[in-house]
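Page 42, continued from yesterday. The earlier attempt failed because a stray header line got pasted into the input along with the sequence. Redoing it now with the clean sequence only.
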Amino acid sequence: MLNMADRSRPQWVRIGRELRRLRLQAGLTQDELAKRLNMSYGTISGIERGVRGTTREVLAQIDHLLSTGGSLQRMWEALNSYNGLPEWFRGVAELERESSEIREYHPLLIPGPLQTEAYIRTILRIGSPALTDEEIEEQVRGRLDRQAILTSERPPILIVVLDETVLRRPFGGRETMGRQLEHLLMVGERPRVTIQVVPIATHLHPGLDGAFHLFTVPHRGQVLYTETRNAGNPVEDPDAIADYTRVFGELRGAALPEATSRDLIASAIGELP
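This time it went through. Structure tokens are written below.
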């Protein structure tokens, strides 16, 4: 019997779904894959259906056989690395870790990869008042761990578009928000990070449908990600991705250039109430 390090059924389902996609992409049946791995058909079927867990070592064999570049191993590691995050939220952390490029728009909050510790803590206290102090600190650590992608050996290209209202709202108070905006300026100096702001005076705003992410994932392609208060929704439908890609382009067109956006962020610090 496999020594399974992870017994969370939703995680099994994610790995199984990805394994099935990669197997079909390679043109193999479940029986053919099982024989090449010297496993039973039932084992492969169970993993793909999300009713059976597996190990990193098994996924390494499958990655090698299917020439995936290690994507299944990285997925397994991601699903076992974000213990401070709610289960539904781990999907976006996994996509962030896998991506070569991330495009994100948010009309209400600073996006996760750019948040300070105090800003994160404020979000959790306001949005999840039932959490204990210990649970809040665990989630703060989990969210901060996500930001390691920006200082990794090969960080993704990160392009963020914000509404000016995000800068003007003194979220958590003047000190918390001031330090958050200073952090935004600091991270924005990195060569693979672009931050643009859509000014309040914009008459025709293309981002009225809310926040979204567009991920470019090697060996997988484009993934759209939207989320609600307690659920995340990855979408790989080409028409939906094309539509949101168009919207993101329009948002960048409506936003101030990068240098002017930096000036606006800097001025917002001094104008916080």
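Notes: The mean pLDDT is 88.
Reminder to self: strip header lines before submitting.
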